[in-house]
Amino acid sequence: METVTVRMARGDRSTSWGFGVTEAPNRDVIIVNVVGGSLADRAGLRDGDIIDQLEGLGNLDINAVDRLLVTSRDKIELIVHRYYSFLPITALLRTTQDVLMCLKNLSY
User: Fold this and answer.
1) Which residue in 41, 38, 66, 36 sits closest to 51, CA to CA?
2) Which positions make up the signal peptide (predicted)?
3) What is the average pLDDT across 96-106?
């Protein structure tokens, strides 16, 4: 896990931050739908980032995050947790006969 501070600034309120939020079953607020080329994208926000703090406030539910984002003026600061996913695991499926044949050929 990595903790990342993301700061964004916009010239006027008509410019979108360029991301959405959703609530996980455990009540974490998660970044979704980061728009390519948006302020959020250029600031380094990623889909799947988990909001730890917004504007210095922590332990926020999705309603509080929504209120803060809607009322924000020209700057916002988020602290997010980012979990890395490792390379996908590829499984090679074998028949039982193939596995037994391999086991017969093992030596110690």
Assistant:
1) 66
2) none
3) 55
Give the pLDDT mean for 37-44.
97
Minimal CA–CA distance to 46: which of 85, 87, 88, 89?
85
Structure tokens at 12: 């006027």
Q: Which residue has the tokens 């499926």?
A: 93
Question: Using CA atoms, how far apart are residues 105 and 72, in angstroms rounded to an integer?
Answer: 67
Cβ–Cβ < 8 Å for 29, 21: yes
User: What are the structural domains of the chain?
Assistant: 2-104 (2.30.42.10)
CB-based contacts of 44, cutoff 8 Å, min separation 6: 4, 6
